[in-house]
C-alpha cells in the first residue's frame, strides 16, 4: 500500500523500553523500604537454602555446650535447656517455616484464584455455591478451624500446610472474584472473544493475569500470616514435633524459662518470626510494582 | 479597558515524574473580562486542564506552580493560603468537570449536595437550604425539582447529572465558572441543551466563563474569545470570529482543518503535508450482493412481564452489501450498541435472523461463536483503544492473538511476518510492536486495534465509535486509514456512532435509530441534506459547527504557507 497512512503519522514519543533490571532499580530507589525488604527476603532465602551448612553446630545435637548459657561468642544466641545451640536452631528452622508457609500460600493462591475467577466470570450458580462455601470457612474462627483440621487429619507437617491453605482460601477467592468481576466486560475481553478465545481462555489467558498485581500484595501479606499460623500451631503442640527446630516450638519451649531469666530462648526465635513476617508485609508493595507493567513507564 | 476579572501572567507548572521534571504549561498568560466567555482549545496533553487546575489550585501533589501570577479580582491567588482558597472555590470560582456521574457523590441525594455547598459557604442556613437548593434545581431546568431533590445520582441520566453539577457550581453565584469538557460523553442533543443552559445562566448572573474543550465546533458556537494551546504553550489567542476567519499559526490551521465540517470529505481533514503523500480517494465501486441481512431482530432484557423487562431492540431489519458502509446513528440508549453486539455474536438474540454470507448465525449461542469458521470474517474495532487492549500484552501479542487461534496452520514465523505486514498496513512503526498499551499514544493504540481487527481478512468490520476517544487530528488520520483499508481489503463497514458528522465521512448509507427502532434510513447525502423526520433534524441541528464558509480560504492559505516554505 502506497498511501501516506502506511507511514507513521506520530513519531514514537515514548522513549525506548526499559529493561527489567532498570525497572527493579527504579522501584528500589523510589521506596527504600522496598530495597530493605528485598534484601531481608534474600537473606531469608539464603538461610532457608543453605542454613544447615552455614551454622556452627548441629541444631538437634544436645550438649553442644553447657545448658542454658547466655549469648556468648561461641553460642551467639546462647544455648537451651538441653544444651543445643539456639543460633543454629533459629537459622535451620527458616527452611521448615518457609516451606510450610510457601506451600500453604501457593495452594490457597492456586485454588482460591480458580474458584474466585470462575465465580466472578460466570456468576449465577457457580458464584452462589462458591460464595457460600467460602462463607462457611469464614464463619469459623480461623485458627480454631486450623487446629480442628490438624487434630482430625493427623499431626503432620503436610496437614499443617493443608489447614493453613484452607483457612486462607476465602481471601484469595474473594479477591479474585472481585478483580475478575470488574474486568469481565472490559473492551479487551470482548476483543479477546472476537479473536477466537474460548470462555476459559478469555478468563485465564486475558483477565486473570491482569488481577496479579493486587494478588501479589495479598500473597506477601498472607505469607507472614501463614508463618505465624504454622508457628502458632506448633506452639500449642500440633504439627511439627520436637526436637525439629521450628520457631513456634522454640518459643513454646523457651516460654517456661522466661521466669527464671533465660530470655534468649524466646527472644531470638521470636525475633526471627517477627522479622520474617515484617519482610513479607513490606515486600508486597514492591512486588506489585514489579509485576504491574503499567509501572514500567 | 477595565481590569479583567482573572489575569494569569506567564504561569508555569512543573510536574515531578519518573523521567524527571516535566513542564506541563509554560508561561501561559490569559485574561478573562467580566461577563466574557473564553474558550481554551487544544488536544490531549496540551495543558488546557492543567491551566484551569492551577487557577483553582487543585493540582495534584506532583504538580507545582513554578512561576507566574494568577490575579483574580486584585488578589494574587498563587500566594494565598489553602484555607482562604477553600472559600474562593465554589463561592468566587467554580468548576464543572467532565464526568458528571463521577463528580456527584453517589450515595447522597442530589438536592442535599446542592444544599451542602450553600451551607458550606454560608449562603443559607440549614433551615432554608432546602428551599434554596430547589430554586437552584429549577434554575437548571430540572423538571419537578421538588421531587427530584430526593433523587440519587444513579436515578438520573447523564445530562440530568450534569445539570445538577451545574446547579452545585452556580449555587453560590460565583464570578467565574470554569467548565472542563462539560459535555464530553453526552449526546449531541443533550450537549446542546447543557451548553445553552450554561450560557443562559452565566448571562443571567453576569458571570465569566472559561470553557475548556477539544471540540472547535463547540468552542466556536459558545465562546467570545479562543485560546489555542499546544504542548503547554499558548499558540494563538483571538476573538472567535477572527480565529476562524484568519488563523495565524499553522497548528491552528491544522486543527481547524481536522475538524469535520458539513461539506468536507475524509481527505480534507488531513494536513497538506500528509495529503501529498496520500493517494487520492479510490473510486467507490458499486456495492456487490448482500453480505449481511438482519431481519426482525429483537432483544429484550429481564424476564417478560416483570418490572424491569425492557425491549432494547424492537424489530430491526437492515442489510449491508459487499463493499458498502452503513452508518448506524442514534443517541445513547437507542439500542445501537446492543444491535452491534448481536450482529457481532457477542450477545444472544431474543428473536430474528442474522444472515451473514448466506448463513443464519442468529441461532448460534454467543459463547460458541468463538470457534465458528465465520468468526474471522466478522470483526470489530472498539470505541476506546485503551480499554480494548490487554494492558499486560505487548502490541505484537495483541495483534497475533487472532492469528494464533483462528488462522490455523500458520507457523510461528509466518505469524510474525503477518504481524509485521499488518503493522505496515495500519502505519504502526515496527519498533513499537513490543510496547505495552500504556506506552503507546491514543492514535497508535487505535492502529493496534485496527490491525488486530483486520488480521483475519474480515468481510464485515463493525466500527463502534472508533474515534470517539481520539483527538481531532488523530481522528482525521484514523478515519482516512479506515477508508483506505476498506478499499484495499474489500471490506464492508457497519459504523456505529452518535456523531452524524463523522459517520457521514465514511458511510454510503445511514440508519437513524431511536428507542430500539429505525426512525429513518437512506443515502448519506439525502439524510444530511433533507432529513425527513424531526428526530434526525434535531440531531443534525444539535451538532456545533465551526463556521463553514471559510473552509476554502483557510485551506488556500494553509497550502500557500506550506508551499512557500
Task: Report what the structure shows.
The complex is a heterodimer of chains A (297) and B (565). Chain A has helices spanning 20-30, 32-54, 86-122, 124-139, 142-153, 157-183, 187-194, 199-210, 212-235, 247-255, 264-291. With 297 residues, chain A is mostly helical. Chain A has a single domain (22-56, 79-295), classed as MetI-like fold, CATH 1.10.3720. The radius of gyration of chain A is 24 Å and the shape is globular. Chain A starts with 19 loop residues before the first helix and ends in a 6-residue tail after the last helix. Chain B is α/β, with parallel strands linked by helices and 565 residues long. Chain B has a domain at 290-545: P-loop containing nucleotide triphosphate hydrolases (Rossmann fold, 3-Layer(aba) Sandwich), CATH 3.40.50. Chain B has 21 helices and 20 strands. A six-stranded mixed sheet of chain B has the order 6-7-8-3-9-10, with helices on both faces. The longest helix of chain B is centred in the C-terminal third of the chain and has 18 residues, at 472-489. Chain B is globular, with a radius of gyration of 25 Å.
Structural class of chain B: alpha/beta
Return the CATH architecture of the domain at 290-545 in chain B. Answer: 3-Layer(aba) Sandwich
Helix content of chain B: 25-40%
Which quaternary structure do these chains form?
heterodimer
Q: Enumerate how many helices of chain B there are, as a single number.
A: 21
Strand content of chain A: under 5%
The CATH topology of the domain at 290-545 in chain B turns out to be Rossmann fold
What does the main sheet of chain B amount to? Answer: 6 strands, mixed
Instruction: Write down the CATH topology of chain A.
Output: MetI-like fold
CATH class of chain A: Mainly Alpha
Radius of gyration of chain B: 25 Å
The low-confidence runs of chain B, each spanning 5 or more residues with pLDDT under 50, are 549-565
| Rg of chain A | 24 Å
Question: Which CATH C-level class of the domain at 290-545 in chain B is it?
Answer: Alpha Beta
User: Could you tell me the number of beta strands of chain A?
Assistant: 0
How many E strands of chain B? 20
Could you name the CATH homologous superfamily of chain A? MetI-like
Largest interface by residue count?
A-B, 37 and 57 residues
Number of helices of chain A: 11
Amino acid at each position: 500500500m502506497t498511501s501516506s497512512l502506511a507511514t507513521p503519522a506520530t513519531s514514537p514519543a515514548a522513549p525506548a523500553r526499559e529493561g527489567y533490571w532498570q525497572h527493579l532499580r527504579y522501584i528500589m530507589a523510589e521506596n527504600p523500604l522496598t530495597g530493605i525488604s528485598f534484601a531481608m527476603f534474600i537473606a531469608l532465602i539464603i538461610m532457608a537454602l543453605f542454613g544447615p551448612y552455614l551454622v556452627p553446630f548441629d541444631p538437634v545435637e544436645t550438649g553442644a555446650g553447657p545448658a542454658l548459657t547466655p549469648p556468648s561468642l561461641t553460642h551467639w544466641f546462647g544455648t537451651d535447656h538441653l544444651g543445643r545451640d539456639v543460633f543454629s536452631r533459629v537459622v535451620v528452622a527458616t527452611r521448615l517455616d518457609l516451606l510450610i508457609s510457601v506451600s500453604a500460600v501457593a495452594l490457597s493462591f492456586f485454588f482460591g484464584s480458580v474458584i474466585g475467577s470462575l465465580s466472578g466470570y460466570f456468576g449465577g450458580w457457580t458464584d452462589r455455591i462458591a460464595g457460600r462455601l467460602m462463607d462457611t470457612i469464614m464463619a469459623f474462627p480461623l485458627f480454631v478451624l486450623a487446629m480442628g483440621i490438624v487434630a482430625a487429619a493427623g499431626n503432620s507437617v503436610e496437614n499443617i500446610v493443608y489447614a493453613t491453605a484452607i483457612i486462607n482460601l476465602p481471601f484469595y477467592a474473594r479477591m479474585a472474584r472481585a478483580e475478575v468481576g470488574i474486568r469481565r466486560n472490559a473492551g479487551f475481553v470482548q476483543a479477546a472473544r472476537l479473536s477466537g478465545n474460548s470462555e476459559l481462555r478469555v478468563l485465564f489467558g486475558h483477565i486473570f493475569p491482569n488481577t496479579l498485581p493486587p494478588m501479589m500484595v495479598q500473597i506477601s501479606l498472607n505469607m507472614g500470616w501463614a508463618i505465624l499460623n504454622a508457628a502458632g500451631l506448633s506452639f500449642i503442640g500440633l504439627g511439627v514435633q520436637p526436637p525439629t527446630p521450628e520457631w513456634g516450638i522454640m518459643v513454646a519451649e523457651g516460654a517456661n524459662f522466661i521466669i527464671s531469666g533465660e530470655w534468649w530462648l524466646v527472644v531470638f526465635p521470636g525475633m526471627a518470626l517477627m522479622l520474617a513476617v515484617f519482610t513479607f508485609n513490606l515486600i508486597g508493595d514492591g512486588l506489585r510494582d514489579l509485576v504491574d507493567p503499567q509501572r514500567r513507564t | 479597558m477595565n481590569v479583567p476579572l482573572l489575569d494569569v501572567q506567564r504561569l508555569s507548572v512543573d510536574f515531578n515524574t519518573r523521567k524527571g521534571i516535566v513542564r506541563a504549561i509554560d508561561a501561559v498568560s490569559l485574561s478573562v473580562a467580566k461577563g466574557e466567555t473564553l474558550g481554551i482549545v487544544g488536544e490531549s496533553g496540551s495543558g488546557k486542564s492543567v491551566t484551569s487546575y492551577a487557577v483553582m489550585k487543585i493540582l495534584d501533589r506532583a504538580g507545582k506552580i513554578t512561576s507566574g501570577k494568577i490575579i483574580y479580582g486584585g488578589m494574587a491567588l498563587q500566594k494565598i493560603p489553602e484555607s482562604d482558597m477553600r472559600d474562593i472555590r465554589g463561592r468566587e470560582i467554580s468548576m464543572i468537570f467532565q464526568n458528571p456521574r463521577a463528580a456527584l457523590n453517589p450515595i447522597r441525594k442530589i438536592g442535599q449536595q446542592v444544599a451542602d455547598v450553600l451551607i458550606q459557604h454560608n449562603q443559607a442556613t440549614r433551615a432554608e437550604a432546602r428551599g434554596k437548593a430547589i430554586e437552584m434545581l429549577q434554575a437548571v431546568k430540572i423538571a419537578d425539582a421538588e421531587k427530584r431533590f430526593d433523587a440519587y445520582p444513579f436515578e438520573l441520566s447523564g445530562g440530568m447529572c450534569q445539570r445538577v453539577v451545574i446547579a452545585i457550581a452556580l449555587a453560590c453565584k460565583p464570578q467565574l465558572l470554569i467548565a472542563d469538557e462539560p459535555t464530553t460523553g453526552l449526546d449531541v442533543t443533550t450537549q446542546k441543551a447543557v451548553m445553552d443552559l450554561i450560557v443562559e445562566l452565566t448571562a443571567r448572573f453576569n458571570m465569566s466563563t472559561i470553557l475548556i474543550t477539544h471540540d472547535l465546533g463547540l468552542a466556536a458556537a459558545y465562546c467570545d474569545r479562543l485560546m489555542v494551546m499546544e504542548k503547554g504553550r499558548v499558540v494563538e489567542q483571538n476573538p472567535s470570529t477572527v480565529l476562524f476567519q484568519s488563523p495565524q499559526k499553522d497548528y491552528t490551521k491544522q486543527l481547524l482543518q481536522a475538524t469535520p465540517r458539513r461539506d468536507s470529505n475524509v481527505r480534507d481533514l488531513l494536513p497538506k503535508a500528509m495529503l501529498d503523500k496520500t493517494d487520492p480517494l479510490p473510486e467507490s465501486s458499486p456495492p456487490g450482493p448482500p453480505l449481511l441481512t438482519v431481519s426482525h431482530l429483537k432483544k429484550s432484557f429481564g424476564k417478560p412481564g416483570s418490572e424491569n423487562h425492557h425491549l432494547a431492540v424492537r424489530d430491526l431489519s437492515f442489510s449491508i452489501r459487499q463493499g458498502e458502509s452503513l452508518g448506524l446513528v442514534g443517541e445513547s440508549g437507542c439500542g445501537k450498541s446492543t444491535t452491534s453486539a448481536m450482529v457481532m455474536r457477542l450477545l444472544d438474540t431474543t428473536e430474528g435472523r442474522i444472515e451473514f454470507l448466506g448463513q443464519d448465525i442468529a441461532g448460534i449461542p454467543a459463547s460458541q461463536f468463538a470457534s465458528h469458521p465465520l468468526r474471522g470474517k466478522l470483526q470489530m474495532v472498539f470505541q476506546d483503544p485503551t480499554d480494548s487492549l490487554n494492558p499486560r500484552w505487548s502490541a505484537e501479542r495483541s495483534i497475533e492473538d487472532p492469528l494464533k487461534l483462528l488462522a490455523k496452520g500458520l507457523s510461528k514465523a509466518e505469524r510474525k511476518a503477518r504481524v509485521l505486514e499488518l503493522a505496515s498496513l495500519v502505519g504502526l512503526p515496527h519498533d513499537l510492536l513490543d510496547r505495552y498499551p500504556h506506552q503507546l499514544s491514543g492514535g497508535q493504540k487505535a492502529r493496534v486495534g485496527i490491525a488486530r481487527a483486520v488480521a483475519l481478512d474480515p468481510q464485515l468490520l463493525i466500527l463502534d465509535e472508533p474515534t470517539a476517544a481520539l483527538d481531532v487530528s488523530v481522528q482525521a488520520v484514523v478515519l482516512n486509514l479506515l477508508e483506505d483499508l476498506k478499499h484495499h481489503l474489500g471490506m464492508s463497514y457497519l459504523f456505529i456512532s452518535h456523531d452524524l458528522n463523522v459517520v457521514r465521512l465514511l458511510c454510503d448509507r445511514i440508519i437513524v435509530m431511536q428507542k430500539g427502532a429505525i426512525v429513518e434510513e437512506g443515502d448519506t447525502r439525502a439524510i444530511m441534506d433533507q432529513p425527513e423526520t424531526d428526530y434526525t433534524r434535531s440531531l443534525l441541528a444539535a451538532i456545533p459547527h465551526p463556521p463553514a464558509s471559510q473552509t476554502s480560504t483557510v485551506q488556500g492559505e494553509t497550502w500557500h504557507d506550506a508551499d512557500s516554505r
